[in-house]
């Protein structure tokens, strides 16, 4: 007889449904085989599916993330979605959640501003290092960057916000580069609403363009904090769905806050 598991779909870094980045969340009592987790993620066909199990006490939960083709080591929007499910659907009553993950301990807390509740991720800071601009980068993004940086991910900096918004990437070219997450970014328009904007392309793991990428802001936040001389930054990921992130550099950690909206609750059978 098939095992039944609850499934939720949450739009993360979203002002409401149909914006931000949709993530599936599957709470479990114990781990299913990895092949089953991968098959569920492939069946969901979203950029990420988050799975978690309880660890008990102050250890919190063990959290894992799968794209349709790959298990990854850090995912911001699916962590926010998992926290939303725990806070709003599963009755977690504390102010802060703790997750164990492949990227170490991660925390999510509830915060309130004048517009209502946000969830704030506590993530590692990954300042990138300069690298040479290549012809492949220009071909992949569809424009030549002014600067290039790399760490866990690739960051290409472009002249202005409009250039980033209007990029027409050559997705197969990204497979020629050694990065899973390829970020295009620029400072926001002078006097505009955002300190910086970005777009993120991950075709190597089955995500042509990621709608909103929390983990990319582990790299973007320290970069733009240094470039702009400020530690609190309003960011916008300019995909077709779009998503707003409120970022803060805190030493060797970054705080990435955003809103979320429940789209679906259901049951899967595996």
Outline of the structure:
By secondary structure, the protein is α+β, with helices and mostly antiparallel strands. It folds into 2 domains: 4-124 and 257-269, Diaminopimelate Epimerase, Chain A, domain 1; 129-247, Diaminopimelate Epimerase, Chain A, domain 1 (Roll), CATH 3.10.310.10.
Task: Please characterize this protein's 3D structure.
- The structure is a single chain.
- The longest helix is centred in the first third of the chain and has 13 residues, at 76-88.
- Strand 2 (21-27), helix 1 (34-44) and strand 3 (48-54) form a beta-alpha-beta unit.
- The protein is globular and about 55 Å long.
- The mean pLDDT is 95.
- The chain is an alpha+beta fold.
- It has six helices and 18 strands.
- The protein starts with a strand and ends with a strand.
- It has an 18-stranded mixed beta sheet that branches.
- The protein folds into two domains: 4-124 and 257-269, Diaminopimelate Epimerase, Chain A, domain 1, CATH 3.10.310; 129-247, Diaminopimelate Epimerase, Chain A, domain 1, CATH 3.10.310.10.
């Amino acid at each position: 007889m098939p095992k039944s598991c609850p499934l939720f779909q949450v739009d993360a870094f979203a002002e409401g449904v149909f914006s931000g980045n949709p993530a599936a969340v599957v709470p479990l009592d114990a781990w299913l085989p990895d092949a089953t987790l991968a098959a569920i993620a492939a069946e969901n066909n979203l950029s990420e599916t988050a799975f978690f199990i309880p660890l008990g006490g102050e250890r919190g939960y063990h959290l894992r993330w799968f794209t349709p083709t790959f298990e990854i080591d850090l995912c911001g929007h699916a962590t926010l979605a998992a926290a939303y499910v725990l806070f709003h659907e599963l009755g977690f009553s504390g102010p802060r959640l703790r997750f164990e993950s492949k990227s170490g301990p991660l925390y999510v807390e509830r915060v309130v501003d004048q517009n209502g509740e946000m969830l704030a991720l506590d993530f590692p800071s990954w300042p990138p290092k300069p690298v040479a601009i290549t012809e492949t980068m220009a071909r992949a993004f569809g424009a030549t960057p002014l600067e290039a940086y790399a760490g866990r991910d690739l960051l290409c900096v472009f002249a202005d916000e409009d250039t980033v918004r209007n990029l027409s990437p050559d997705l197969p070219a990204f497979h020629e580069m050694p990065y899973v997450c390829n970020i295009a970014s620029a400072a926001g328009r002078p006097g505009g609403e955002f300190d910086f904007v970005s777009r993120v392309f991950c075709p190597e793991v089955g995500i042509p363009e990621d709608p909103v990428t929390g983990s990319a802001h582990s790299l973007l936040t320290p970069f733009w904090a240094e470039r702009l001389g400020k530690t609190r930054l309003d960011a916008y990921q300019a995909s077709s769905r779009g998503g707003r992130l409120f970022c803060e550099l805190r030493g060797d950690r970054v705080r990435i806050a955003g809103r979320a909206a429940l789209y679906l609750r259901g049951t899967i059978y595996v």
